[in-house]
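We include the pair:
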Amino acid sequence: MIDWKLSEEKEMVIFYAGLLNDEETIKIIERNEIVNTQEALHVAEFFWKMVEKSNEFQYKDNAIECEFLLEKVINTLMAYFRRAGYESEWEAFADL
């Protein structure tokens, strides 16, 4: 289970998944769990797309809050990927 520290983290991820028309990420995040390698790769790639999208459209139209929440989300996802055994899937996109 993904251990969100703040409810706004999950809300932000779902918000950007909606903006990017990414139903797969929405499904995974609402389930609150990655169940296989393919999903891990999908969410890892999505995170970086979300970061790019946040550069042009900031969450709640607030740059400071957006940056703060992005930092929280990356920490939450990195910890989850590590704990769930998907660290190499995360690293596949973090190193690009």
